[in-house]
Design brief:
Helix content is 35%, strand content 14%. With 194 residues, the protein is of the alpha/beta class. The chain folds into 2 domains: 87 residues, no CATH class; 77 residues, Rossmann fold, CATH 3.40.50. The longest helix has 15 residues.
Length: 194
């Protein structure tokens, strides 16, 4: 279920239950975000509804199919919200998660070791958690790695990064706007962590 279809799934499940159906609900959860509980002040009604609807779907499922990259997130979601009546989960690897690109490289990779985050939506990709971790490292006197932030630059993220509180680590941020697939693979391959 995608973020645009979880409400439909919830309504479908309710209809099946009201009709007395014994149909097994086996959703494929895709792009299961956000995993946080109001982590930012921008936690909107959409986010609350998203979490509520997904909890409902999970609790009413016999088996949950999830892409491998989201399996840990779903487990944390279940534990954090005491979702105990959910069906078993089965992780499905994505064969097309990061195919090689055919375009020529267009960017220079950072020379220093770097962390990578792809996708720039606050709350949804939890980049604010990474930025806070970098800030805490700086405050503790630790070496702060470069953070490469790749994707379409969102105004909301730009405003967030420009906060005075993030100034101490702002020089460790490298924005790479919309890298082509070849560069994306290079960024992933050479990152310390992503």
């Amino acid at each position: 279920m995608t973020s645009s279809s979880q409400r439909l799934g919830r309504n479908w499940i309710k209809t099946l239950e009201l009709d007395g159906s014994n149909a097994a609900v086996v959703p494929l959860l895709y792009d299961f975000m956000p995993f946080h509980r109001g982590a930012t002040k921008w936690f909107r009604r959409f986010d609350r509804n998203f979490l509520h609807d997904n909890r409902f779907v999970i609790e009413h499922s016999r088996l949950i199919l999830e892409f491998g990259i989201h399996a840990r997130g779903l487990g944390a979601f279940r534990r954090g919200r005491n979702v105990t009546e959910a069906g078993a989960g089965a992780a499905i690897p994505l064969v097309h998660q990061c195919p090689d690109g055919v375009d020529a490289p267009e960017i220079d990779l950072p020379e220093a070791p770097y962390l990578l985050t792809v996708g720039l939506n606050l709350g949804r990709k939890n980049i604010e958690v990474v930025l806070e971790a970098l800030l805490r490292m700086k405050k503790r006197g630790l070496s702060v790695p470069t953070l490469v932030i790749a994707g379409a630059l969102r105004r909301r993220l730009q405003r967030y990064v420009e906060q005075p509180s993030l100034q101490p680590t702002r020089d460790r941020l490298v924005f790479t706007r919309n890298p082509n697939q070849t560069d994306l693979v290079r960024l992933y391959t050479n990152a310390l962590l992503w």
